[in-house]
Amino acid sequence: MRAEYLFDAGGRSLAPFFSRTMLSLAFNCVFILSLIFLLFWPYRELSAYVAGQQTPLSFLGVFTAAALINGYVGLLCGANEAHPRDYFSRMDRKSVVTFEEERGFLTYGLVGFALHTLFLLGLQLPLLLAAAALTGVSWVDLIRALSILFITALLCRLAGFLSYLHLGAWTRFGYVTTRTFFLVFILATGLLLPAANPVLELYAIYEELPMTFAPPLGGYAGFLLVTLAAMLALILAVQTRIRRGPAGLRGGG
Amino acid sequence: MNANQGGEGRELGQRRRRGRLFFILLCFLSLWLPASPARAAGLGLEYFLGFDGRFRLGAWTPLRVVLENRGVPLRGVLEVVVTTGSEYYQNVHAATYAAPVDLPTQARKGYTFAVHIASFSHPLVMRVVSDGRVVLRQALNLRPYYVTAPFFLVLGERISPDLFGQLPAGGVPAAPSPRLLPVAWYGFEGVEMVLLEPGALTALTPDQAAALAEWVRAGGFVVLSGGWRYEPLLSPQARRLLPISVQGIARPSALKGLEAFGGRPWSGPGPVPVVQASIQGAELLAFENGLPLILQKDVGYGRVVFLAFDPFSPPFSRWAGQRSFWERVYGLKPAAPPGPIPLPAEALEQEMLAELPAGFPSFVWTLSFLAAYVALVGVMLHRLEHTRTSKRTLALALPLAAVVSSALSLGLLYIPQVSHGRSFSRFVHVRVPADGRPARLETILGLYAVRPTFYRIRLAGAGSPVLSLGATRAADLARQDEVLSEENGRQTIEVRLPSWSHRFFHLQGFVDLGLKAEARLDEAGLEVAVDNPTSQGVRGVRIAYDGRLFDFGDVPPGRRLVRRLDRARLLAESGLDLAELKRVEESPPADFEGRLRQRIERRVFEIILSVVKSRARPEAITLFGWLDSDPLSLEVHPGDAVGGAVRLFEWDVPLQGSGGGSAEGGRGADDAG
User: Fold this and answer.
1) Which of B26-35, B84-93, B588-597 has the highest mean pLDDT?
2) From the CA of A221, how many Å to the nearest CA of chain B?
3) Interface of A with B in 76-115 (CB under 8 A)
4) N- or C-end of chain B: fewer Cβ atoms within 10 A?
5) pLDDT exceeding 90 applies to what percent of chain B?
6) Poorest-confidence range of A136-145, A199-208, B33-42, B476-485?
7) Is A119 on the interface with B (CB under 8 A)?
8) Cβ burial, residue B159 (10 Å; 0-12/13-18/19+)
9) B602 near B585, Cβ under 8 Å?
10) Size of interface A-B (CB pairs under 8 A)
């Protein structure tokens, strides 16, 4: 089984799970999330929340932070920006053709992306469960929220990878493109296409809203529909781009 | 030819355009049809609100809805939606009263509700729902029909409108058809006095007669008349209200006996038919040559006045003293019984809310657990970075650590939190009057939800008016409307609570506790005895006497407890105070019900103490204590909701002055019952 994305020491993987950089990134995610967990801890009695008909913010705060953190990490990993950022490392990596560019995307790259996203989320899971417990989120909503985190991170990673394939790593245009995508996905969809916005979906779960932000699509189903369609489109674009030849060989795009 | 062809072409074009337009219209129609309530063909609705079409604002009032089905058989629910509150204050709240309906073809059925209407700003909606669809809907603007004064109901077949002018001021006279009277006692809440011709009694259904009798027991006032047609006085409906023995009819030439009562000389011409009746335990108020004319009898908290003559027909109806007569009769209405000790509902709600079975996990433990996890992940990642030999083992151990920690987080934090997310509590206040009348019961029922919950509460019986109490964030009430229904003699409350919310309901009723108590005050001191022949224990009884509070003790089931307070102690001691109450409190119990009990008992006794100190009553004592079991049982669904109850009884016991038992300063004598 080809699984260089786990322990690749040769530097030919986009984001090898157990490389020094990725491990430190994973720890930073857990650490930051635990700080946010503390920040959103309900410091009043439970009865005070019931009396005031207020919902503790733990779920919303921690899950939103997790969506942003994992989405951004996914974007970095996909865009081949997760490695050391000093000048010489960049120059070194510019000539590297990664396994993800060489091999069939559906059988190698996508699997690695999905597994790494799951790995990062898995490390954060105890914190996420604790936050959901404090807010009293139901089983169904918890699974929905976790799936939103997973989809968000994977979609960002795919978008980052597509940008890398077309524009290369650490190029100015690539940098702007990936960050613009992130801002559009996290912020602009809130106004233009709420059903595709992960933060609004998490908010809808938190508030037990009927999720009618985007009447034509609506709710969690709408989110799945839009994001999975976007994901399919990205996979198709990535696959097409990979078939044309590795981006790295062409000097990044 | 070309012109003709052009004309035909234009016509064809126009037809096509019309066809398209028609098609588009059909499409729009098909979109619109499912959105509008489907009206079941042949289903008709007729309603009768209140008394003579009027209702008293802020009181329970009867509503009779008659459904007629000339179409296909229909099964569903008849709902009456009463909306109160204001959009401005965002506290709009609807209560739905529901009854199941089963209407075969050509069926005509009536359904009687008692509804509480607190405002007229929203229409009252009656609708029939079948298979989740509204098949019939009718809205009623309440504004033209409300009154603020109480009703004087005049029930009979031969009621002259002239009578309305003779009735005392301050009330709204109404003469509704007896078949439109309430079937629940509290449906009469807006009524001050009922004048009843005997013939009207036989028109009452057994439920209506029971409701009328129950209303009298709860404090209502009925004036029952006699006259020529006295047979209905012997009917089961009359017997339920007031057992009367009738010996026959007498025909005195005048009713001079009424002159003293009415304050005017009798001027009626001719003989007057008077029922020769006797009522056991009744008080005679007026008579004519030994023939009782006016009798009154207290029934429960209410009173029935029996007029042996016919006040709705001549010669009485031509008497000039009618007005003062009716004013005097109205004056016989019993005063409202002294209320229970005032326990502010808001304070009780706050105490109930403050003690819930669910709680957040300990901050210290959660923090320790998560800190340990983060440290473990940190150490493992550090080892992974620096090891060359055991990299794969550590790589496997890392997800394993995450899985184990997630399982711990799930088991220790998530599952306990979610499973304790539903709870309810009750505060029951039973007031036992001094004279053996039934005990009044008031209950505040609190429902709490940390996660969305559909509550269904089934009361053991019927006849308890249920009112929703306000919430702290009234805006949320709009999505928590309750449904009240009654089936098979049991009342049901259904309410859907969103997460992190609560609701309070107020219930009333009457109970028979089965306890006995007596108190004697003599030279030796005060002796109080409580008999508890029931199977429920009575705890923490305290005696309120002359502005002070003394300990009495617990009365176990089937026991009699006698306690004596000697004269010296009665004169010298200042009784229990708050400090002493706090001293005797136990340490906080571990279970939810124990904690709830301790919290509420402490708060209630603070209130009781302040009230007792402010009202010294040397002629009676009051016993306060706690019941172990519930006098008003109810079932709460879902079954996993954790519940607790606190039950206070307040008992007025008249003091007897006879020299009784020997005084033993403050020592309790526990005699087996």
Assistant:
1) B588-597
2) 21
3) none
4) N
5) 32
6) B33-42
7) yes
8) middle
9) yes
10) 133
Name the amino acid, one letter, at A14. L
Q: For residue B506, give how far its alpha carbon lies from the nearest alpha carbon of chain A (Å).
A: 18
Pick left, alpha or beta for residue B424 (phi over 0 → left; psi -120 to 50 → alpha; otherwise beta): beta
**Residues B617/B540, Cβ–Cβ less than 8 Å:** no
* Ranges of each domain in chain A: 13-250
| DSSP per residue, B486-511 | EETTEEEEEEEE-SSEEEEEEEEEEE
pTM, two decimal places = 0.81
Which residues does chain B have within 8 Å of residue A51's beta carbon, measured at their own beta carbons? 350, 353-354, 472, 502
User: Which residues, other chains included, contact B33 with Cβ-Cβ below 8 Å and sequence gap of 6+?
Assistant: none
User: What is the ipTM, given to two decimal places?
Assistant: 0.85
- Alpha carbon dihedral B174, B179, B181, B182, in 10-degree steps, equals -160
- Under a CB-based contact definition with an 8 Å cutoff, are residues B429 and B340 in contact? yes
Of the CA atoms within 13 Å of residue B201, those in its CB half-sphere come to: 25
Residue entry with tokens 């992130």 = A182
Q: Which residue has the tokens 């053996």?
A: B436
Q: Which CATH superfamily is domain B43-146 in?
A: Immunoglobulins (2.60.40.10)
Does 3.40.50.720 match the CATH number of domain B149-331? Answer: no
- Predicted confidence (pLDDT) at residue B258 exceeds the cutoff of 50: yes
Q: Where are the domains of chain B?
A: 43-146, 149-331, 363-419, 422-510, 515-630+648-672
Q: Grade residue B586 by pLDDT with cuts at 50, 70 and 90.
A: low
Chain A residues touching B476 at Cβ < 8 A: 53
Single out the residue of B322, B321, B323 nearest to residue B264, CA to CA.
B321
- Using pLDDT thresholds of 50, 70 and 90, give the confidence band for residue B25: low
Type of residue at B90: Q
pLDDT at residue number A89: 67
Residue appearing with tokens 């449904």: B483
